Predict the structure of Dihydrodipicolinate synthase family protein.
Amino acid sequence: MTLKINNITPLRGIVPPMITPLNLDGSLDLDSVKKLIEHLISGGVHGIFILGTTGEFSGLSYKIRKELISATCDIVAGRIPVLVGITDVSLEESIQLANYSEKAGAYAVVSAPPFYMNIDQQELYTYFNQLADSISLPMFLYNMPSHTKLNIELDTVIRLSSHERIIGLKDSSAHAVYFQSLCHFFKDREDFVLMVGPEEMMVETVLMGGHGGVCGGANVFPRLYVDLYEAAIEKDFEMIKSLHAMVMEISKNIYQLGGYKSSYLRGLKTTLSFAGLCQANFAPPIYPFSTVEVEELKKRYSQISAEMSIN
Amino acid sequence: MTLKINNITPLRGIVPPMITPLNLDGSLDLDSVKKLIEHLISGGVHGIFILGTTGEFSGLSYKIRKELISATCDIVAGRIPVLVGITDVSLEESIQLANYSEKAGAYAVVSAPPFYMNIDQQELYTYFNQLADSISLPMFLYNMPSHTKLNIELDTVIRLSSHERIIGLKDSSAHAVYFQSLCHFFKDREDFVLMVGPEEMMVETVLMGGHGGVCGGANVFPRLYVDLYEAAIEKDFEMIKSLHAMVMEISKNIYQLGGYKSSYLRGLKTTLSFAGLCQANFAPPIYPFSTVEVEELKKRYSQISAEMSIN
Amino acid sequence: MTLKINNITPLRGIVPPMITPLNLDGSLDLDSVKKLIEHLISGGVHGIFILGTTGEFSGLSYKIRKELISATCDIVAGRIPVLVGITDVSLEESIQLANYSEKAGAYAVVSAPPFYMNIDQQELYTYFNQLADSISLPMFLYNMPSHTKLNIELDTVIRLSSHERIIGLKDSSAHAVYFQSLCHFFKDREDFVLMVGPEEMMVETVLMGGHGGVCGGANVFPRLYVDLYEAAIEKDFEMIKSLHAMVMEISKNIYQLGGYKSSYLRGLKTTLSFAGLCQANFAPPIYPFSTVEVEELKKRYSQISAEMSIN
Amino acid sequence: MTLKINNITPLRGIVPPMITPLNLDGSLDLDSVKKLIEHLISGGVHGIFILGTTGEFSGLSYKIRKELISATCDIVAGRIPVLVGITDVSLEESIQLANYSEKAGAYAVVSAPPFYMNIDQQELYTYFNQLADSISLPMFLYNMPSHTKLNIELDTVIRLSSHERIIGLKDSSAHAVYFQSLCHFFKDREDFVLMVGPEEMMVETVLMGGHGGVCGGANVFPRLYVDLYEAAIEKDFEMIKSLHAMVMEISKNIYQLGGYKSSYLRGLKTTLSFAGLCQANFAPPIYPFSTVEVEELKKRYSQISAEMSIN
């Protein structure tokens, strides 16, 4: 089976939303970019998604976004597909990022709704159509209502799916009924790719016909999520039970420390710094954990790593 | 395995949230209550839940609620467990309903958070504890944030689960991460029952360790949901695929007509009236569909019934 | 000018939402009811509103609600209008409370939207019309979206205002544009009464044409709010400045202690207990402050009382 | 009285959030920029705020934003203060816009919270502090929770107000209690400027101590809002009544056509095109009204213009 455009194979599997390694001064930490990408590829991931929410796209200047696009495409060098987040509030800036991504060799772009103006579904439809018309790469829709204030309703997805460059959707709503409605509508359209955001629901959506997950935790433990995805494909419930429990332990221990709205992002990137895969520097308005919190997180990470190596 | 209280077996399976059959003047339609209950039991359901949201509890006077409790317990006569919704904004009224339910012979009661005052989790915890202390029946928590404005957070559930009379939770949030977090925490506590509300996500939650579903559509097609539940238990994916598609067709065609906030309730009860199982009368503030809408719904119902009998 | 029904004069001024004095066992504290009512009347208030949100209506059993209605009407004995909250989720229960209030001698009833089911404006319109058709007392609409999840939109108010028994609206949304839109639409309809909930915006709305305020703080300091209302009517800006500053001090020091969602209610009733006007007992799900918080509140209250007596 | 920095006089009065005139191809319509600015200045406004929500900042590329900053500062040429919106999701991009504005000769910059990431108040505080530390112009905070999902809480404003470059706040929440709380806290701090967004509440806030309004309608009718502001300062209630009624008519007839979330923006800019002050072109995701809607709006505008010239 090939996609409606470009004869590319539709995406399946685990596509980590890569964190963006930064130096203390806010510049791109290129060494860590390289290390992290090799870590992901050697972990068996099926693609890499840069400049998503986990990639802190919104806090980065355009200059750094472009550097990351180029670097990632160069380092990956075609080994796996690279997806680039081009979400913005300005259509023109999104188009420029898409064009840049194309030249750099990206596989596809990903766009959430414009997230400042309050608009209706018809405007959202027009906007996405206009964006898809203005670029050459295939595009994924990105549903992220907790951050954009705006749900891409099922009918809007259906209407947009007839655009030849709109090839799928990543849903981070965590709303299982919404995702099942998508799966049901597109069940005979294997070319329209449905990926889920929250890793805690990756297995169940794959069991029910979803195509994979954009799992943040795969930055740290790519193999775990790849194995879990494959277990879901194989319907190996013994394996699922054991690996999914790990995923839930990561969720509980790494993503909720301190009870901040930004606990997930802080927890994930700080944990990666323990693994030597980046520094724990963030783009404002995200800021580092306190020393005490870092120590607590380190303890939790050691425990999880230990359990992981036993299993 | 027995429950921590009363030596009763923990609930598993399909427990329809029974609609409340009403006459045009708002009185209880007892004939339909009987017909409907027999329809459900002969469809193989594992329990009946009355006076939930689907049962329009909030619109009913206390007099009618009590009539329904007595009638249901009498008609069911111990064949399957009867769960009674006692959700209220007044602790005292909830307790009275619980006492009444106990005398009538109910299996357990079900309570969502008090839904007028804006409160914090600590107050919610204290409230549920006080309620459980004041009654003798086992009690399910009922998470329904779209209607109560208040999520029962995981930590609050965990704290409440140590109360001997709090034996489980029904989650209607549709939030898959929340439900997976519950399943993960309680994975070694088989006595703490986790049921899911939205029928569109029943299968996937049972596959992942959930204990069953409170499926509105089971009012019309009890056998479908029971078969689907059993397919999930058996991990019979061919069967799951075919039956789940039916559930999704019901969701799409019956629950969303007209795009009202009350489309689900109107659609479900009106469809039941086509099947001769009740009249399409509602408790205010829910009102009947227009004639045109009823005709459209009838067409959709015929189509679904036809497909159902083929399969 | 007389109202469209009953030849009664339309309400103007300060109508405190009376707290409900309770004994420790949850029964009505009748002594305090008497003391509090005399305190309010001697403070010059223009009416009393019982069983509102501040009156904790939702937490009270129907038995206690009726006791309070009778007691209040008896004690007030026609000296000022008594308004009774009949907000409920069941139309039938609301009607019964309205009938009871009429017999007890109330001036009018007050109803917020039914607050469990999610409904659209058309259903809300039908519901309020049906309620007004089923009772004999005049009725105020009560807009309280933070508690009911449902705004009574301007168009709905306009449509409902043609019902002869719907004589006004109390708005607790704190949304100034909404209130100004109401004032503008009804500026030539002096019989349609527009009262505002949050006392912090009472003056400005009276200056702009609003008819008064349902000020919680008037339970403690009725004269302050009455004087402020009269200053607004007189456009005495020196007086306004000084009295409004007091109201804001009360808001800051009494209503926000501890940062709970229920801080307003806890703070108000506890302060009234310092003044010997009730006990600090609440209806679940509201619970008392801790001892430390009570001490802190007492200090703040003393300071405010001292300032008050100086001015 | 002078401001804590730069010896500038604190802002007072009407500061229209200028719409951004665009050509059909999305480029800046410089002719209209000139016409519009002269229209505003000759209408007596006390300042101009560009690149706010009404200025569609979020939909514009950085290139166009910079062109507008330069053009506006050049055209205004010091006659009145120019405020520049630098709201962004990236601190670095905000800083660059601030630096650009300073060189262009702006009076101050205005920043709403970063609006993609979900953060807590402490992160918001740190972010704004960091921003103010990194620029040289004075800065206004901009509270716009309907668009940013994030309220700048009173305590956060208070903490930020001690930064020498943070000189005021524009509040577009429409929440009267919030605004009164600000006014009360800062009542002895005349250097900290409090402006209100929604023009429907401009008068009442000025009567209560607010310093002015950022009134969108002043793009069309600057004199009306300036006169209303002065009437409020003079406490001329006859004048207030008549002019405020006009403002409410504009709100009702111009800002709500079609019931879209974008009705305000579409209505305002299209009306300005009737007045020959710009073309009715928008930055995506805002799109033009249909021909029928434009005709209806034209009728309404004629009526309002006629009434205006009578008065």
